[in-house]
Structure formats: C-alpha cells, structure tokens
Amino acid sequence: MPPTSSNTSTDGYDIVLRLLIGVAAVVVPLSHLAWLSGNITAYLTGGGWAPYQPTTALLHPQRLWPHAGETSLLIGARIVPVLLLLALGTTAGILWARHKNRSGGRKKKITGMAKARDIEPMMAKAITDKARSLRPSLKDAKHIEARDTGILLGNLQGTKQEIRMGYEDVAVAIMAPRSGKTTSLAIPSILAAPGPVLLTSNKAAGDAFTATYDARAAVGRVWSMDPQQIAHAAREMWWNPLADAKTLDGAGRLAGHFLAASVDGSQQGDFWSKAGSNILAQLFLAAALDEGPITDVMQWLAFPADRTPLDILRDHGFTAIAAQLKGTVEGPPETRDGIYETARQYAAALLNSEIAAWVTPQKNVPEFRPSEFVTSTDTLFLLSKDGGGGASALIAACADSVMRAATAQAERAGGRLDPPMLAILDEAANVCKISDLPDLYSHLGSRGIIPITILQSYRQGQKVWGDAGMDAMWSASTVKVIGSGIDDPDFADKLSRLIGDHDVETTSTSHSESGKSTSVSMRQQRILPADEIRALPKGTALCFATGLRAAMLDLRPWYQEPGAAELSAASDRASKAITARAIAKHAPVQSDFGPAA
C-alpha cells in the first residue's frame, strides 16, 4: 500500500504543477495585453499613459486609469486583450501545425537511413572515378561534366549532395502515377544522356516526348515511331522488323513480342498460345528469307493452304521448319483452324494499313537502322497506347532490336559502348513487354547499355513477367528506386525488411518507497515501417543500391533546374502542335456542297 500512496501523491503534484504552468501561460500574456490595450484606449480617449503594472491592469484597471469611462475600460482592458490572446494562440497553432507537417514530410530526417559515408560510391568523387575507368574517352580528360559520370537520381535527403547511378548500373523504378517518375527521372536522364537514347511511352503531350524533343534534336536526329498516332505526327521513318528474323531464333523472338503483347505471362504456356506463336515464327522466318514485307504473313495466315512459305523455307535450307509448318497445315482441320486463328489475333494490328506502314518499305521515307542508331547521339521515341496489342508488339520488338544491336556493337568495340546508350522503358508493362527482359538485365549494364524500367507497381511487373521473372529483374537490378504511392502491403513490408532495424533507446520510470528510479534499455525497431513507406511524400524516393544501405532521396524535377523556362516553353509549343494536328485530323471534311455528313 505505501508505494501506491506515494505514486498517487506524486501524480497529484504533477497535475497541480501542470495546472499552474497552464494558468501562467494564459495570465501572463493576458495581463500584458490588458496593460498595453488599456494604455492605448486611454491615450485615444484623452487620458495619460499608466506605469508598467500588468497585474493591476488585469485585475483593477480603474486604479491605473481612474478618469477612463467604464465602457472604455471594459473594451480596452477586458475584451480586446482576450480577443488578441485568442488570435495570437490561433496563429501560433497554425504555424506549429505547418512546421510539424513540413518536418513530417520530405524534410523529415529518418534515423537509420544511409548517410553520406554509407552511400559514397554513388556520390560525385567515386562516380567520376568510375566513369574514367568505364569510358576510355574520359580517361585523360582534365574535367568531366557531371552528366558524363552517371544518371542523377536525386539529392541525399536534406543535403545538396547528388546521388547518381553509374554507366554500368541497370535500374528498376517503381513509382505510382504523378509521383515524379517522368518529371524527376525520365526527363532529366534523357536531357543529360551523352549517347543515344531510347524512350518508350504511352503519352506524348505534356510528357517526356514534348519536354525533351527540341533538346535532343539539338544533339542528334530524333526518330519517332508512332503507329497509333499518339503524337499525330507525320510518318518520317519506317523500320523493318524482319531484319533480325532471318534465323529461327530471331523469328521466334519477333513472334514472342506479339504473344507477350496479347497474352499475360501466366497464360503464355498453354497449347494454343504456344502453337500460335510457333506458326507466326515460321511465317516470319519465311517472309524474312524472301525479303518481303511483314504484311505477307497476314496473307499466308488468311490462306493456310498457300504453299509459298513452305517453298521459301525449303529453298533456303530450312527443311525441318518447313516440315513442321506442313504438319500443322495438313493436320486436323479443327486444330489447324484454331492455331491459325490464334496467330491471326496476335498479329491483327498488321491488318491496319496505318500501323503496317511504319514497318513496311515507304518511298521517300528514311529507314531506321538500329545498327547505325547505337553509334550515334540520336533519340528514338517509341509511342503506343496501353493495351495496344500488335502495335505494342512492334514497339517492344523495335526496342529489343535496338538493345540487341547495341550489344553487338559493344562486343565489336571491346566490350562496352562509349558513350553509353540509355533505354528508358517507361510504362514497360503496358507498351514494351519484352519477355526475356529480366534475363537481359544480367548483362546489359556491362555492355554500356543502361536500361531503366519504370513500373507503377511490383504486381504490374509480376503480371507481365510472372513471379519468377519479376523477382529475377528485381534481383539483377543494381539500383532500385521506389517512389510514393506504394499501396501493396506485402511489397511495402518487403521493402521495410530490406531497409532493416535500428536500436532505439527506451526509458522507463518506476516509483517505490525509496523514491523514483529511471532505467534505460535498447530495443530493435524498424527504421521505416510499411505504413510510412506507403505514406512517402511526393518528391521523395527510396534508393536501394547493391551493397549499400538504403537511402532516402529528394527528387530533382526538371522544372526546378536551370534552363527550365526554355524547356517548358519548348514543351508547350510541342504540346500545342500535337493538339493542332489532332484537331486538323478529326475536322469534318469540307466539300462544294458543305460539310461532309
């Protein structure tokens, strides 16, 4: 019982002390306001200035201002001070709330995250030294521009120290819409790229396409492949997808892009999908060997009995492939028709003459050649709508062709491209479904080919590449950038575990007959719990780099950088041009008898 009595007594003292402090916090400023307001009131009504006696002013104002009227004292020494105190308290509360929100937002320092010394290999000196060793052209340079050393990811949170990924890293960025993936990652990376740039996107106006078009046109040629007319631009290029399909492997890869664009990764193993893809591969091979347009394949799919592809394969020594094709054609009609119909659906976009024009020879239109592109400082914009089916298959096939041409050129150049090639695969899960992209990640960086695959969520990648494929890409990525908007609780918890725990000091107090005692102990606590990862504010991102502690970054959107006004003006002009072309394209046709019906 005595200890309980002691605790109760101590709690009573604490309550009384807090009450006294609270009363003082109100009475002291209120008495001073009463003295100041009373003097001002007396002065305005012709009275004199009273001596400094705030307590008297609050309790007995008539003693300080005996000649003032009762109404004047009521207003000046009672009502006005209370109103002023309420106003000051409200203002202080608002300012404190704003300060708390800012400290809890992007400026909040999180104990346990990487400090500068923990992430030194991604900072200026180390990344510059690495660039000299990776790029022979920079080996003897006295001064190297920051843009030539690596890709800017952001600043270490709360500092001005830049964090960059080197030109041997490969990255995956998982960022929700409007979390800075385009403004803070894609656009700055494209603008600073020293070599060729490849961008896939499902948008044009107000996106990376318009923001970087003029800037990239100043350093090289800009190629735009827009089969679904997202930018409504004139067709100024064509690309031959059959150029890499003169081998069975090449034809199989091309068919695989049509399969991936039409069927999710979990469904690509069924009989009809595989059979349809095999037929496409055999017909692509025949068309490539015959050096005909890819649209010949649609003619052969429409008439399975056409022996032209069989004869072409046999004439070029592919007798086994011809036998396989013959077996399918002469097999049970129900099975054959099902396989051919599946293949027709996969390649249906080639029936659209506007889409097919981008991948068939065109008079007076230059041909895009990946082998020449990878040795230039040109830019290739590949645009397709979400769910574009065969159109997105052509986008994926072109991107794949460019990366394979870059790999071949790197091997001829001694192992690496110099300058490196940047491949920004934005909306990759929608418009650039390269089936074996996770496998390519294991060696692209070592060739000077720097892919940055941007996804909206981890599950989006799983849907395209399957659990094993997405896990392989995640593991092979030497840099992972996680932005705001992570709503997957399992993935958020996974990130939380990767960030790790830290020691937290815990203080406990106990009371006994001999008095109060305090003890300090340490316990493990998550550095960044899953709920805080979900609540990451816009403008910040987590960075996971191989062999380094996880770091919190302040992103650097392009519109806050030097030269932003000029870039913004160029982007606005390009966006307005797209709008104007769209309006002109869809305007009603005029005739001598008035508008067309």
Short descriptors:
T4SS-coupling_protein; 597 residues; two-stranded antiparallel ribbon; disordered C terminus; disordered N terminus; transmembrane helix; cell membrane; 50% helix; alpha/beta; transmembrane; 11-stranded mixed sheet; membrane; 15 strands; Rossmann fold
Task: Give a verbal description of the structure.
It holds the Pfam family TraG-D_C. This is TraD/TraG TraM recognition site domain-containing protein. It is a multi-pass membrane protein. One of its GO terms (cellular component) is plasma membrane. There is one protein chain. By secondary structure, this protein is α/β, with parallel strands linked by helices. The protein folds into three domains: 2-104, no CATH class; 114-221 and 376-485 and 536-597, P-loop containing nucleotide triphosphate hydrolases (Rossmann fold), CATH 3.40.50.300; 243-364, no CATH class. It is 50% helix and 14% strand. The protein contains 22 helices and 15 strands. The protein has helices at 2-44, 54-59, 61-64, 70-104, 124-134, 181-192, 208-217, 248-262, 271-289, 296-302, 308-315, 319-329, 333-346, 353-356, 370-373, 390-412, 428-431, 437-444, 458-476, 489-499, 530-534, 564-586; strands spanning 150-156, 162-166, 171-174, 197-201, 222-225, 379-383, 421-426, 449-455, 479-482, 501-512, 515-526, 540-545, 551-554, 590-591, 594-595. Strands 2-1-13-12-9-3-8-7-4-6-5 form an eleven-stranded mixed β-sheet, with helices on both faces. Helix 8 packs antiparallel against helix 16, helix 9 (271-289) crosses helix 10 and helix 18 runs parallel beside helix 19 (458-476). It starts with a helix and ends with a strand. Residues 1-8, 103-107 and 593-597 have low confidence and may be disordered.
